[in-house]
Amino acid sequence: MNLFKSVWLVVAVSLMVPAIAQTSVSDKAKTGDSASMNMQILRDKVRADKKLLVAQNMQLTDSEASAFWPVYEAYQTDLGKLNERMKKVILAYAAAYNSGPVTNVAAKKLMEDSLGIQEADMQLMRSYVPIGAVPV
User: Fold this and answer.
1) Which residues have a Cβ under 8 Å from the Cβ of 2 and sit 6 or more positions away?
2) Among the four residues 70, 75, 81, 129, which has the most C-beta atoms within 10 Å?
3) Residue range 83-127, pLDDT digits in tens
4) Model pLDDT, residue 3
5) How far apart (Å, rounded) are the C-alpha atoms in residues 38 and 49?
């Protein structure tokens, strides 16, 4: 069952950066922990840079922009919720890994949780198709 552990590690690492970049302010950032505050600043910058990149490449007219940006913001909010779930799975994996060898049962559950989140991500993208928006 080492394959489960290997697959989980690949999935966790590949999803870690966007999951962390999309998460909301942590409790530590609210209380003033400088590392958490720096991470929050980085997240905010990534979000702003992403939005700027989208805006520059889409070159929307005013009427298109007024229709697009609310959908974009709604999608980003929904995506942030999924990424928060993925962050929790990644942290659960880290905790399991740091407490000793990860059991096959734990690895399988974590992988199933991760795959469930990926399926929810696909459903989220599909839910925006009728709106006429392509998620970015």
Assistant:
1) none
2) 75
3) 999 999 999 999 999 999 999 999 999 999 999 999 999 999 999
4) 43
5) 16
Which pLDDT value is given to residue 129? Answer: 87
How far apart are the C-alpha atoms of 124 and 136, rounded to whole Å? Answer: 12
Residue with tokens 């925006």: 128
pTM of the model: 0.66
Number of H helices, E strands in the chain: 5, 0
* Cβ atoms of residues 7 and 108 within 8 Å: no
Torsion sign over Cα 13, 58, 79, 41 = positive
The pLDDT tens digits for 44-70 are 899 899 999 999 999 889 999 999 999
Distance CA 37, CA 46 (A): 14
32: left (phi over 0), alpha (psi -120 to 50) or beta: left
CB 114 within 8 A of CB 12: yes
All structural domains of the chain with their residue ranges: 2-128
